[in-house]
Amino acid sequence: MRDVTRPENIVSHVSDLIGRTPLLELGSIGTGTRLLLKLEQFNPTGSAKTRMARAMVDTAEQAGHLAPGGHIIEPTSGNTGLGLALAALERGYRFTAVVDHHAAKDKLRALAAMGTHLVYVSGDTSGGPQSVRRRQVAREMAAAEPGAHWLDQHNHPGNSVGYAELARELLADIFGDVDYLVSSVGTGGALCGTARELRRYGSHVRTIGVEPAGSIIFGGAAGKYHQSGGGSPEGFPVGTNVEHSLIDEGTSATDVDAFATARVLARRTGLLVGGTAGGAIHVALNRLGGLPDHSTVVALVCDAGEKYLDTIYDDDWMRTRGLLSPAAEEHVEHLLDECAGARAGQAAMSGTGAV
Fold first, then answer.
1. pLDDT per residue over 173-231, tens digit each?
2. What's 14-47+163-338's CATH class?
3. How many CB atoms lie within 10 A of CB 84?
4. What are the structural domain ranges in the chain?
């Protein structure tokens, strides 16, 4: 018999599925320190940025910047655009994404499938992200059209606000505190917005921001990189959502290390993650042994690896760009072996026999 006293667990909009993403324990080491992955690819459109896209549109509506039937314009490497495409189609807005050929092809295909108008700023398929040019074109387009609104994700207050619920999910799902939070940094909203909310609830979390080597957010030398959606290239103004007061340490991950981590993780666990997530996980794995005993480390996995099957998971693409490194992958294998070995030992001592 159907239990009519229990409410049905059914939603009416895809955006109602945002959040409540799972945590996966990747492993632990002998000191009791463990690494948890917050799997943000389980959000609609497969990315953490769906959270902030919804919040930015909410904020723009409340401020009167978006009227019914309005036009959203935003430069994007793909994931923010996918979140905005969802918000736009559910709320009746037009959406134009200003993109370049550095973005993953499957992100661009998905944007088009969701009815987004794509404006390309460059025909160059070999260089790095054209972030400065994308930003310039979006500004010019919005200024030229009455009723159009450029959200400017790097400086929009709704960006970091969109991650407050992520922080509350972590506190609800973990016994004790989040001791270390590791995340790639692009706009800065995910790491800084989550950290701000964690600390508002009394967390003593320490944060580690990870940018691609070649990005200039933390003052490193500018250079070419292939980690789509992360960092800021030379000449790009770092936005206000990168709040250095909320980032205890800024570091970088090379494309080789980031992509090696993602590739090994796929082979070892069946979990496919994006390149910037690979960078964050690489940094976290290398730090575990130097942290206080019984620390809980959370790495934010910002998006899914299925969007990069023709790039970082493709041997020919990697080899052509000099990024395929058996030595780097072997190092990641060793780091994961240490985590798996410690967990197996702990299971044996408890008598479960589980690995």
1. 999 999 999 999 999 999 999 999 999 999 999 999 999 999 999 999 999 999 988 99
2. alpha beta
3. 31
4. 14-47+163-338, 49-155
DSSP per residue, 283-343: HHHHHGGGSPTT-EEEEEE-BBGGGGTTTTT-HHHHHHTT---HHHHHHHHHHHHHHHHHH
Q: Which of 195, 296, 247, 262 is nearest to 41 (CA)?
A: 262
Tell me the catalytic residues: 49
Residue 260 is encoded by which pair of tokens? 């090696």
pTM for the model: 0.93
CB atoms within 10 A of CB 12: 6
Q: Are 133 and 121 in contact (CB under 8 A)?
A: yes
Handedness of CA 165, 169, 175, 177 (dihedral sign): negative
Closest CA to 158 of 61, 245, 18: 61
303 DSSP β-pair partners: 47
Amino acid at 279: G
Q: What is the CATH number of domain 49-155?
A: 3.40.50.1100
